[in-house]
Each structure stands twice: as C-alpha cells, then as structure tokens.
Design brief:
The complex is a heterodimer of chains A (about 375) and B (about 250). Chain A is built from 5 helices and 18 strands. Chain A has one domain (about 10-315). In chain A, helix 4 runs antiparallel to helix 5 (about 350-370). With about 375 residues, chain A is an alpha/beta fold. Chain A is about 15% helix and about 45% strand. The longest helix of chain A is centred in the last third of the chain and has 19 residues, at about 350-370. Chain A has a 9-stranded mixed β-sheet, covered by helices on one side. In chain A, strands 2-3-5-7-9-11-13-15-17 form a 9-stranded mixed β-sheet. Chain B has a single domain, classed as P-loop containing nucleotide triphosphate hydrolases (Rossmann fold). Chain B has a 6-stranded mixed β-sheet, sandwiched between helices. In chain B, strand 11 and strand 12 (about 225-230) form a beta hairpin. Classes of the chains: A alpha/beta (about 375), B alpha/beta (about 250). The interface between A and B is medium-sized, with 24 and 29 residues.
Chain lengths: ~375, ~250
C-alpha cells in the first residue's frame, strides 16, 4: 500500500486516466465525495464532442473551437484526479474564449442543453496581456458533466471569471479549473453553486510571475440531499504575489452537505507573498454536514502575511432576537441574516445585474426551505 | 395615554444547574410620560425584567401578567411586542454582518409602522437623528454593530429608539461602559424622544450616575427578584450615599 499524498503540491498529475488508480472513495481527495454516484463520470465513457452553448456578444471577445493539440492546452495546469484526466482524454476540441479588449468587456456563455448523457468539456479562457474582461459561465438544465477549464491571464491583464451552477436538481458536475496568472496580472475567480445534486468543482491558481494576484471566492447554498464541494488551491510561485480566498456557504435541509478544502502553497521563490484564505458556513437546520479544511504550506520565511480561518456555525438566536425586537418578523429576520452573511461574496462579483439575480436566488432558496 | 402594567410576575431561566427562579412577584405600572428608574445590585433580576418584557425566549414566565393598555403582552411574539410599541435598548447589542445600518433601520421602521416610510422625510429624519447623537454620516453604511465601540453601540440603540418612536422604552443599563460625554449625548437622546413622543421610560441601571441627566419620577429598588422599596427621586440620592448594602442585609 502506498503512502497517502499529504500535501497538495505532491499530488500526481497526468492527462491520462490510466495513470490514476481506480477511485474507491478512500483517497484523500475523494473521501468526502459521493463516489458511488460519480463512477460513471470518473471512469466511464464520456461524450467528448462539441457542447451546445449560447453566448452574448462582446467587443474584443471571440469564441472558437481549437484542437486539443493547440499549444495553449495544458499550459495552465493538468489533471490531478482521474475524473479530470478522463475528461481531458475524451475531448478532441476545446472552446476558446479569447479576450483582447483593453476596455472592460463582459461575456456570458450559457449552457442549458447539455442533456443527460455523460459528457466531457474543455474550455480555455485566454486574457491577452493588458486586456480587461469578465467571463460568466452560466450553467442551467440537465448535466452529467466532467470538465476542465483553463484560465490564462496575460501580463498586466485583469480577468474576472464567474461560474454559476444553477443546474437541474439531479445534475452531476465535476469540474477542475486551472488558472495561470502572469506578471502583475489580476484574476478574480468566483464559483456560485446553488442547484444540482452533486457539484464538485476544484479551482486552482498558479501565481506564476512577479506581482501576480488572485481573488478566489465562492458562495454556495446546499439544500436537502445536495452535495457541494470545492477544493481550492493557490500556488504562490513568484515574488510579491497575493491571494485572497473567501468561500461562504449556507446549508439547509436533511442531508445537505458541503465540503471546502483550501490549500495554499507559498513556494521558496514567493518572497513577499501576502495570502489569506477563509471558509465560513452557516448551518440553518438539523441534519446537515459541512467539512471545512484549510491547509497552509510555507517554504520561505520572507513573506508579508499568511493566514487562514474556518468557521461553521448555527443560526445565531441572539441575532434573530435583536432583529425581532425591532419589529422585524422571524422570517424576514432570517432572510436578513443569511443574506448579510452571503452578501460579502455576492457584492464582490463585480457584475451588479448578476449580483442582484444571485441575491434573489439565494432568498428563493431560503424561502423554499422555510415552507 | 398608555399604560404598561406588570402584575405579580414570576420568571425563571433554564441553567446548567436546572431551573433558576429570578423574578419572584414583580408589580409595576408605568404610564406615558413617566420615567421609572429600576435600580439594584447585580443579580437582582433587573435585566431579566427587561428581556421578559421584550420576549426573549430564554426566560420563562411562570405566573403573573404584562399588559399594554389591557392587551396581553405575554401572548405576543417578540416582533409583535415591538409593533405594539415596546422598545428595548439592549445592554449588549449583537453584530449582524452584511446588514447595513441604513437597511436595518428602514426594515425596522417599515415593520413597526406596517408601511414603508416616505423616502425623502425618512432620509432627513435619519440624518437629523444621527447628527443629534453626534454620529458620523458614514455610520449608516457600516454593518449593524460590527466593529462598533461600546459608545457607538449605545448611540445606535438610542438612534433606533428615536426613529421607531415606541410607547414605552426599556433601557437596559444603557449607561454602562459610557464615558461622561457619551452618557450626556445618550441621555439627551432619551429626553428628546420623551419630549417628542411622550413615551414612558423604564430606566434600568446599576448606578445613579445617569439619573443626573435623566430625571425619574419614580425609583424602584430591586433585590432578589422583587421590588424591595419604592419612592421618588430622593430614593436615588439615598442609594448614591448608602449603596445597596442595607437591602442585602435584609435579604
């Protein structure tokens, strides 16, 4: 029996699924996941053809299909688990989202007709040097999806990537996001996960060059029998790099389950690094489970700051009492507290119309649970 | 003219050591425009009375009654009591992350009045009330009680009282933790609200200090869950000189 991998940087990497052992659910990176429901996606045959999408028009943003032999493929990162490798090897083409505009541009790519066939997808989001843009991946409808999303942020570019999971209730979604951030470039990456039976999207960022920075945010709301998982990784590999990771979630209903694993590696080249990661969960009802595991690995002594925080708490009765004592009904008080809690992340989306819509969805989720 | 009437009130609280009796037969009647000071040593049940009036779920009313103009307050939920005109300025206001003071005040005002306030006059009212309490305008964009100093929390409580215009305000040790300047500002707020609305005030305090700025017509001394002595303002002066020792010996 092999020694289990302890640190994120030492996980095996390969684009070939055969290089990974069969997943049993005992592995460190799978042990929180409902593996039995996912085997077909982890090791079964996947449809790797072009997927259906619609997209808004935006100046300075173009969409095209590129072969997986393109030189850009694999430059942001390569799979660290079998499902990711399974998807990688199944596709022959990737959807390239290319941003060249130096004015802020915004594009929404909607996938709402993926169907129920197990399928693979590969997306490359490339922000040219000095470009500014926002890419929203809006996910609705049925899905049995395994995908890899590569995010390449050129020097001095500012890129905002938001992936919104509002799938049908029985959807399965396994994702791996790999970002590489160039010199003085800024990436903001947000996962908004609201509906779907299993959503397990693991975003990682390589802060590859001097002065690169990333904000990795997440907001999630798990209902009864819903599994939402994210394994977040920031690899500081260059001097003066900065990261902020904030994931906030609410759990409501029997069997609601969330997992957050946050790994930060500060490599020996990453002097002057400033890093902070936090995960906070609000437990609204009995019968839920939130796992929250922050890890920090530091290989240099010369850093500006590194910290982490994790907290999972119940609804605070004193907050409710305070609001009710001001005439606010219990139902509205709950809504205020939960919205306030999740707002911190929603307000940072940087897309006001989307923020407003997500806030309304969160309120709807909350009310669905009350009734 | 309104009356808040408390009759033979017995209240207990659940603790790790079992049920603990705190109030043992409290009688009190407050009319509009009156200020009653409730004084007493630690553990005498002053705060329990405040929280029981407001309806905190931690406290169980064993017997007795609380009525507001004849209506049974104990039958009302916490928010119904606030809508009926009762206000509790809390000793330890809690933080509500992500909810701004502006949003909170407007939500509370809408709930208490049953309709949203007219926007223009509301903004003006809030601005004026904040200026009177010497609160910086930036205050309204901060999250409720988050990172507030002790003095800021108390001013924020009084701000709510001035804007919600209750029939009766219960001030639970609003004076604790305030320096003399803040104490004056807060006291002026209470006097202003009283003058504007004719509300009745139940002022709960450990010390006589705040009574220099808010004059009570009635003073009730609480000891061991009951009113041990009642009188006019002169009773407060006597307490200032003698302290509570006299009552504790009897108890």
């Amino acid at each position: 029996m092999s020694v289990p991998v302890q640190v994120r940087s030492a996980r095996p990497k390969s684009t070939n699924p055969a290089d990974f052992a069969a997943v049993t659910g005992r592995e460190l990176d799978w042990k929180f996941s409902p593996v039995a429901k996912l085997q077909e996606l982890i090791s079964g045959e996947l449809d790797g053809s072009r997927f259906a999408y619609t997209a808004t028009e935006a100046a300075g943003v173009s969409l095209s299909w590129i072969p997986v032999t393109d030189a850009r493929i694999g430059t942001a990162g390569i799979p660290e688990d079998r499902s990711s490798a399974n998807a990688w090897s199944a596709v022959t083409e990737a959807l390239l989202v290319s941003i060249t505009s130096e004015d802020v541009s915004e594009i929404t790519i909607t996938r709402d007709a993926l169907g129920t066939t197990a399928r693979a997808a590969h997306i490359v989001i490339e922000a040219a040097p000095f470009s500014k843009g926002t890419v929203i991946l809006q996910n609705n409808g049925d899905a049995r999806l395994v995908e890899n999303v590569e995010i390449l942020v050129g020097a001095e570019a500012q890129l905002n990537v938001i992936s919104v999971q509002e799938w049908n209730d029985d959807a399965l979604h396994l994702g791996s996001h790999f970002a590489r951030v160039g010199r003085n470039a800024e990436l903001k990456h947000t996962l908004v996960s609201l509906s779907g039976e299993v959503i397990r999207v693991n975003p990682s960022t390589l802060l590859a060059e001097d002065g690169s920075s990333v904000v990795m945010n997440g907001v999630y709301f798990a209902d009864a029998h819903q599994h939402i998982e994210q394994q977040v990784y920031v690899n500081h590999d260059a001097p003066q790099s900065k990261s902020r990771v904030t994931y906030k979630g609410a759990l409501q209903g029997a069997g609601a389950r969330t997992v957050w694993i946050g790994d930060v590696l500060i490599g020996n080249k990453a002097v002057g690094t400033d890093s902070y990661e936090q995960n906070r969960n609000l437990v609204l009802t009995e019968g839920t489970r939130a796992d929250s595991i922050p890890n920090l690995e530091i290989e240099t002594g010369d850093i500006a700051g590194a910290g982490h925080a994790s907290a999972t708490g119940r609804f605070d009765d004193e907050q409710l009492f305070y609001l009710q004592a001001r005439g606010i009904s219990e139902e509205e008080a709950r809504r205020l507290v939960v919205r306030g809690f999740l707002n911190e992340v929603v307000q940072q989306l940087g897309v006001p119309a989307l923020a407003e819509r997500i806030e309304a969805s969160l309120v709807a989720e909350l009310e669905a649970g009350v009734n | 003219m309104s009356t808040l009437k408390i009759t033979d009130l017995h209240v207990s609280v659940e603790t790790d050591q079992g049920t603990k009796q705190i109030l043992r037969g409290v009688d009190l009647e407050i009319n509009s425009g009156e200020t009653h000071a409730i004084m007493g040593p630690n553990g005498s049940g002053k705060s329990t009375l405040a929280y029981t009036i407001a309806g905190h779920p931690k406290y169980t009313v064993e017997s007795g009654s609380i009525t507001l103009d004849g209506e049974d307050v104990l039958e009302m939920s916490v928010d119904e009591r606030a809508k009926a005109g009762l206000f509790l300025a809390m000793q330890y206001p809690v933080e509500i992350p992500g909810v701004t003071v502006t949003n909170f005040l407007r939500t509370a005002k809408t709930a208490v009045d049953g309709e949203a306030p007219a926007l223009r006059s509301w903004i003006k009212d809030v601005r004026e009330a904040m200026a009177n309490l010497k609160m910086d305008p930036s205050f309204s964009e901060r999250n409720v009680n988050e990172g507030f100093s002790g003095g800021e929390k108390k001013r924020h409580e009084i701000l709510q009282m001035e804007l919600l215009k209750p029939k009766f305000a219960v001030l639970d040790e609003t004076d604790s933790g305030l320096d003399v300047d803040a104490l004056k500002i807060v006291s002026e707020g209470v006097n202003r609200a009283k003058e504007a609305t004719g509300m009745g005030v139940l002022l709960i305090t450990h010390y006589t200090r705040i009574l220099r700025y808010i004059q009570p017509q009635f003073v009730h001394v609480f000891v061991n869950g009951k009113v041990a002595e009642e009188g006019g303002p002169e009773l407060a002066d006597r307490l200032e000189n003698e302290g509570y020792d006299r009552y504790l010996e009897i108890a």
